[in-house]
Specification:
Helices cover about 40% and strands about 20% of the residues. By secondary structure, the protein is of the alpha/beta class. The strands form 3 sheets. The protein has a 6-stranded parallel β-sheet with strand order 3-2-1-4-5-6, sandwiched between helices. The chain has a 3-stranded antiparallel β-sheet with strand order 9-10-11. A two-stranded antiparallel ribbon has the order 7-8. Strand 7 (about 200) and strand 8 (about 205-210) form a beta hairpin. The structure holds nicotinamide-adenine-dinucleotide and (2S)-2-hydroxybutanedioic acid (LMR).
């Protein structure tokens, strides 16, 4: 196959490279795991985003193909591909935002925690490179189990002396997207007008929808609350089972990438280092800005059902956080 860089130079297209090098305004974004089910459509969305000036696509397989494909889109972001661990650092240098969907997805019958053994090491290695090459980047972690991979990232950054709690976010927006859709379905509303806060974490009972705080204000029967809570907590499993071994949710995840828009003053739910509860990490509504998390909002008033759910969520979350934190000690 032709060496793309040589062809560009032969054709006098070095201006593209200059543009890539000089892309001073706009976000420089790296997607790690860019050739995967999430990575590819996420790369497309980022290439369509006028706020993005430079897009680095890194994977251990198929990065050149995805890069060639995405780079033909007639939008302004310059796209560069990086293949294999020897190119990981090059993929990260100068990045403002690093999005990590690298790793393996669930198959039917698995929990997200069953992915820990493979994905924990992948996230650790990637975060060590981030700490070295772009320690000030905002890091969005999609790889599961998010409840543990975010604490792993934080530990790696702490060890390297570069941890900024405002800049490390676990992506849980998909739970909100699902909750909005399911509530809209049963209430006969337009999902775009519904906003359900979903707090806690991103697995099973740690996914805690606050149905008492839904906007517009809705009143649910206990049967509806039980149905909605169960469906929102098991939305990921619903997709994993329907895909029957061919992966987990990817396309609805793309809607969740609204959280990565980069607009000023966007309020979304994310799993972050937090003092909202006694746990060191918790998902709740946060205000995002150019520097990451600018404000973490309190949970607001909970009803008795939600308070019971919160206790269950915290119990499981505490174990997942501890597992992530001790992973570094175990591996060193
Ligand atoms: P996928 O298998 O389709 O893609 C994963 C990609 O990661 C592949 O291209 C693979 O080559 C790459 N990869 C593997 N090891 C790597 C490494 N060391 N460095 C860089 N890239 C590597 O899976 P997917 O459907 O895209 O899901 C990816 C992850 O996201 C899974 O862990 C899944 O559970 C998780 N997920 C999270 C959410 C969320 O809301 N947080 C939603 C959906 C999926
Ligand atoms: C989801 O919620 O869809 C993702 O976390 C993927 C999964 O394994 O459920």
């Amino acid at each position: 196959p032709p060496n793309l860089q040589m062809v560009e130079e032969d054709l006098g297209l070095e201006r593209v490279n200059c543009r890539a090098k000089g892309a001073s305004s706009g976000f420089k974004v790296a997607i790690l795991g860019a050739a995967g089910g999430i990575g590819q459509p996420l790369a497309m969305l980022m290439k369509m985003n006028p706020l993005v000036s430079l897009l680095h696509l890194y994977d251990v397989v198929n990065a050149p193909g995805v890069t060639a494909d995405i780079s033909h889109m007639d939008t302004s972001a310059v796209v560069r591909g990086f293949l294999g661990q020897q190119q990981l650092e090059d993929a990260l240098i100068g990045m403002d935002l690093v999005i990590i969907p690298a790793g393996v997805p669930r198959k039917p019958g698995m929990t997200r925690d069953d992915l820990f053994n493979i994905n924990a090491g992948i996230v650790k290695t990637i975060c060590e490179a981030i700490a070295k090459c772009c320690p000030k980047a905002i890091v969005n972690i999609i790889s599961n189990p998010v409840n543990s991979t975010v604490p792993i990232a934080a530990e790696v950054f702490k060890k390297a002396g570069v941890f900024d709690p405002k800049r490390v976010l676990g992506v849980t927006m998909l739970d909100v997207v699902r909750a909005n859709t399911f509530v809209a379905e049963i209430m006969g509303l337009d999902p775009r007008e519904v906003d359900v806060p979903v707090v806690g974490g991103h697995a099973g009972v740690t996914i805690l929808p606050l149905l008492s705080q839904v906007k517009p204000s809705c009143s649910f029967t206990q049967k509806e609350i039980d149905y909605l809570t169960d469906r929102i907590q098991n939305g990921g499993t619903e997709v994993v089972e329907a895909k029957a071994g061919a992966g987990s949710a990817t396309l609805s995840m793309m809607l969740a990438s609204r959280a990565l828009r980069g607009d000023a003053a966007v309020v979304h739910c994310a799993y972050v280092a937090s003092e909202v509860t006694e746990l060191p990490f918790f998902a709740s509504k946060v205000r995002l800005g150019r520097n990451g998390v600018e404000e973490i909002y309190p949970l607001g008033p909970l009803n008795e059902y939600e308070r019971a759910g919160l206790e269950k969520a915290k119990k499981e979350l505490a174990g997942s956080i501890q597992k992530g934190v001790s992973f570094l000690r175990v591996t060193e």
